[in-house]
Amino acid sequence: MANVIKLRKGLDIRLQGEANEKMLQLKSNGHYALVPDDFEGVTPKVVVREGDHVLAGDALFVNKLYPEVKFASPVSGKVTAVVRGERRKVLCVKVDADAEQSYVDFGKKEVEKLDGKAVIDALLEAGIFGYINQLPYAVSTNPQSQPKAIFVSALRDKPLACDFGFEVKGQEDDFVTGLKALSKIAKTYLGIGIQPDLQAELQKRNVEQYVELTVFDGKCPAGNVGVQVNHLNPVNKGEVVWTIGDPTVVLFIGRLLNSGKVDLRRMVALCGSEVKNPCHAEMLVGEELSTLVSNSYDTDHHVRIINGNVLTGRPTTKDGYLGAHTSEITIIPEGDDADEFAGWIMPRLKQFSTSRSYFSWLCGKKKYALDARVKGGERHIIMSGEYDRVLPMDIYGEYLIKAIIAGDIDKMEQMGIYEVAPEDFALAEFIDSSKLELQRIVREGLDNLRKENA
After folding, report:
1. Cross-strand partners of 189
2. C-alpha triplet 370, 374, 378: angle, nearest 5°
3. What is the pLDDT of residues 148-162, one digit of tens each?
4. What pLDDT was estimated at residue 343?
5. pLDDT at residue 355, rounded to an integer
C-alpha cells in the first residue's frame, strides 16, 4: 500500500489551452539538434565534426569533466553544424536525419541479472546517463558520485503539464524495467499524484518490490522532485541523491535495456491559450519545433513560444528544438501590444491574482489567458512571507534568497540550499511582489556554492 503525503502549501494556476487526449500525427522535416544547455552543469566537448555520419545512439558530445558521460544522437544522419556562441561556447550540434533510421545495437539486457555498476555502465555506453540529475546543486550527475537514494517523480502538476499517466499507456513494461534498473543502483523512491489508474497499474506490476511508492496529495509544486526529497529523505551536507524529475527518462532507460537501442521518443503537449487545437504529439528529443507549431496559432498576434511550461520553460521560436526534458510546448500572448484603459486601477475580472487585488477571485475555478508581462519593475526584496505560502518545504525561502544575494555561504547552508533546485522557486517568482528573478538567483547561488566546494 502506497504512503500518502498531504501537502497544504502550493498554488494551482488554471490556464486556458490545456491539451486534450488527442494525438497529432507529425511528419518530421528531418532537422534535429542536441543542446548542451539542456543538461545543467555540463561542460560539453564535441566529439564529432561537420560532415560526419552518426547512428542513433552515437555520442555527439561528452562532459569535459567526466568524459565517460556521453550524450547520444537521437537520430542517425549527417552532422551538419556545430553551432558556437560567444567565447566558442557550444550552443548545439545539428544533425539531418536519414530517411531510413539506423541504430547502434547495445544489446538487450536482463535487468534481474545486472548489478548497480552494470546498469550505470550500460547507461554510460548508450549516452543517456547524463539525463539523471542530482541534489545538491541541481545539475546533471556524474558516475563518481555515490547516491544515498534515487528519487523519481511521475507527477507533472505545473500549468498545462503533459499528463504522464496518458504518456505511459502502452509503455508500462519499459517504465517498470527502468525502475528496476534504478533500484539496482540505490534505494529508489517513486512519487505520483492522485492518479488511480497509474497507481493501480503500478501496483498490479508489483513495483513496490523495487521502489518505495508515495502518493503526493497537494497543489503545485507537489510534483517537484526536490519537494519530494524534502519530505521523504532530505539531503544533508556531504550527501548526494540522484533525481529524475522528468519521468520520461525512466522510459528511455527501460527502452534501452529491453530493446538494446537508444529511443528518445517522448510525448509533448502543444498547449496554451493561443493554440488553435491543443493536443499531444510524439516527438524525438532535439526535433525542430516547426514540425509541431507551424499553423498551430494565429500569426496576427504577437505570441511567446515556450520550450517547456510557463513557470520554468525557456522562450524559443518555431526554429528552435525540443529540449531534452521538455514535455510541453506552450504558446501564450506576449502582451507587449496590450492596451488596457486605466491600467491597474480597473476592477479586473480576467486577470489572475493570489492576493485578491482583482475581483476575479470571485469567479471560482475560472481558467485564464495570461500573457508574458511581468507587470511591474524589480525592487528591493519585501519580507512579506509570500514565498512560504507556495513553498511546501522545510526551509526559510525568503532568508535563503537574501543569503544568496549577499553571497553568505554559511547562511545559505544553514537555510537549506543543498535541498533546493531553481524550479522549487518558480511559483514564488510568479507571486513575488518584488519581481525578482528567483530561479536565476538560486541557480547562481548553486553554481557559486559548487565552485566553492569543488
Report:
1. 151, 212
2. 160
3. 999 999 999 999 999
4. 64
5. 76
Contact 320, 352 (CB under 8 A): no
Per-residue pLDDT at 375: 80
pLDDT at 345: 65
Predicted TM-score (pTM) above 0.70: yes
Residue indicated by cell numbers 510524439: 282
Query: Pick from 402, 375, 272: which is nearest to 331 by CA?
Result: 272
pLDDT for the residue 342: 67
How far does Cα 110 stand from its chain's mean position? 29
pLDDT less than 50: residues of the chain: none
Grid coordinates of 283? 516527438
Residue 376: what pLDDT?
A: 78
Q: Give the pLDDT score at 21.
A: 92
